[in-house]
Design goal:
Length: 502
């Protein structure tokens, strides 16, 4: 008998599961239940739409050929039935049915399944701050938010000013979007740095770049209240007493997994609030799988179950879940190593594996680190700077992580490092990697390998080093280290002096 597969959620993981099932089982009935009006949205593209990189929102929900990925596309091209503006209300695991509600008509019905996938994603966190419900305050999480922000930018009401609450990946992308759209804006971040996946020293490079581009960044400060007039936001009051006038605010302080529908029917939800799945993306009910922002998955470096709400992970997990739903448990999703990247004006910033602060938090005591700054290709080919920070374990030489920032090709170095981490490689296995080289693409020895060489020098005790942050701390406490300047006049001209101590 033909099987019926039902998938709750129709953005990233959901459509991936549905499409893969269709390719693996031509006879199956595949149904997507999607609360939103849209299907298969390119959520990661919202900031670029808001910032005006492109102006047609349909591009966010279209195939590369330009065809809209709507229910008729899913039906005609993929033979998948997609119910949009339909909410899954509850799951009856005994009867193997899902209660669904048409959000336009209010009509409810039960649909049966043989195998079910829950891909309900995550919700943006809305903190209980006074004034949070004022008009002009929103999140940038779904298509409706993106459309609303774009409209607000269009009729900014004269003085166009915004505050971005939260300096994580989405907050920083939103800051850039505002700036590109001509909206003066300030990022307010409670921590002492933006982009928490970076160490402080790397994040400061990004913050300076944001300021150079005209936006303001305030770290170590939080929002106390949103002030309004006639129901609309007029300013944001910070814990420090600073008040910033604005007519828009975007709150981007993180997301929470949408796991209630799972928890309500007895599916185990983990300590981080995400649905618990095994390596097959299967829940504690053998007929129910889950993937994407709503699950907890294993961090392959720390071996802990964590939330990892990223689009690539959602798709990869979905592909694994689909195979296991069709063939039984044949494919495993081992986990993630924590690779992420974002564009910040002319910079790219990203990381993979552990940062120094994460390593310390995880109890690594013996780590060696290197910060390596160099152009990403020869000067005669227009090389642009990239700054790499690498970490390894002193005892074993195990490579632990890379952070990378700069206007050069950061993505390539992060990709190499991510592969090395997945392969659980050590310094000695990385020093002679055969990577592609020609002047248009890299120096003769790639920046990543050069940085690994410096790491090896430290590991083998050929040399020791001190970071800029550590040196500054010494200078600040009144120590007078003996510094010998070895840079030539041209380098000093470009890079500047360490004041008064050379
Ligand atoms: C602005 C922005 C930028 C981002 N940039 C990046 C990036 O650069 N790189 C990256 O890797 N990731 C990025 N992400 C994260 C990425 O978009 C998510 O990780 C990904 O969308 C998760 O996919 P998902 O299918 O698990 O959940 P979602 O995309 O959240 O989809 C879940 C869907 O389920 C539906 N749903 C929920 N409950 C129900 C219900 N009861 N019944 C029916 N339907 C329901 C929702 O309407 C929703 O459409 C970004 C996200 C945002 C918002």
């Amino acid at each position: 008998m033909n099987k019926r597969y039902v998938i709750i959620g129709g953005s990233a993981a959901g459509p991936k599961i549905a499409s893969k099932i269709r390719r693996l089982d031509q006879n199956a009935e595949v149904i997507i239940i999607q609360k939103s009006k849209n299907l298969s949205m390119a959520s990661c593209g919202y900031p670029y739409y808001v910032g005006g990189v492109f102006d047609n929102p349909d591009q966010l929900v279209s195939a590369p050929t330009g065809v809209l990925r709507d229910p008729s596309f899913f039906s005609a091209v993929k033979d998948i039935t997609a119910y949009v503006e339909t909410e899954a209300l509850s799951i009856d695991r005994e009867a193997k049915t899902v209660r669904i509600k048409d959000l336009n008509t209010g009509k409810e019905q039960d649909i049966s399944y043989d195998k079910l996938a829950i891909t309900t994603g995550a919700s943006p966190i809305k903190p209980p701050i006074e004034g949070i419900d004022l008009e002009g305050i929103c999140t940038l999480h779904n298509m409706e938010d993106a459309l609303e922000l774009k409209e607000r930018i269009k009729d900014g009401g004269g003085s166009k000013k915004a505050v971005v609450v939260g300096g994580g990946l989405i907050g920083i992308e939103t800051c850039e979007a505002f700036q590109l759209a001509g909206i003066e804006n300030t990022v307010v971040e409670m921590l002492d740095q933006v982009l928490p996946f970076l160490d402080w020293d790397m994040a400061k490079l990004v913050e300076n770049h944001i300021r150079e581009k005209g936006a303001e960044v305030l770290t170590g400060d939080g929002v106390k209240k949103f002030n309004g007039k006639d129901g609309k936001i007029v300013s944001v009051e910070l814990q420090s007493g600073i008040t910033i006038k604005c007519n828009m605010a975007v709150v981007s302080i993180g997301v929470r997994p949408r796991s209630k529908i799972a928890g309500d029917c007895g599916i185990i939800v983990g300590t981080k609030g995400g649905i618990q799945v095994n390596r097959f993306m299967q829940t504690n009910d053998s007929d129910i799988y889950s993937a994407g922002d709503c699950v907890e998955v294993t961090n392959l470096i720390t071996h802990e179950k964590q939330l990892w709400p990223m689009g690539d992970a959602a798709n990869l997990q979905g592909r694994v879940a689909a195979q296991n739903m069709v063939f039984g448990n044949i494919e495993e999703y081992e986990g993630f190593i924590g690779t992420g990247i974002c564009k910040v004006f002319d910079f790219t910033a990203g990381s993979t594996g552990l940062s120094e602060k994460m390593a310390k938090r995880e109890g690594y005591k013996n780590i060696i680190k290197v910060i390596h700054a160099a152009p990403d290709k020869p000067g005669f080919m227009g090389g642009k700077p990239i700054i790499l920070k690498l970490l390894a374990e002193k005892t074993t030489g195990k490579f632990l992580g890379l952070q990378a920032v700069g206007s050069g090709d950061v993505a390539k170095r992060l990709s190499i490092a991510a592969m090395a981490l997945h392969g659980r490689m050590c310094i000695s296995q990385l020093v002679n990697l055969d990577l592609p080289y020609a002047p248009p693409f890299s120096p003769a020895i790639d920046n990543f390998i050069t940085a690994i060489h410096v790491l090896e020098n430290k590991w083998r005790r050929y040399m020791d080093g001190i970071s800029a942050v550590e040196l500054k701390a010494k200078l600040d406490t009144g120590e007078k280290p003996f510094i010998i300047g070895v840079r030539g006049p041209a380098e000093l001209e470009v890079c500047g002096w360490i004041s008064g101590r050379i």
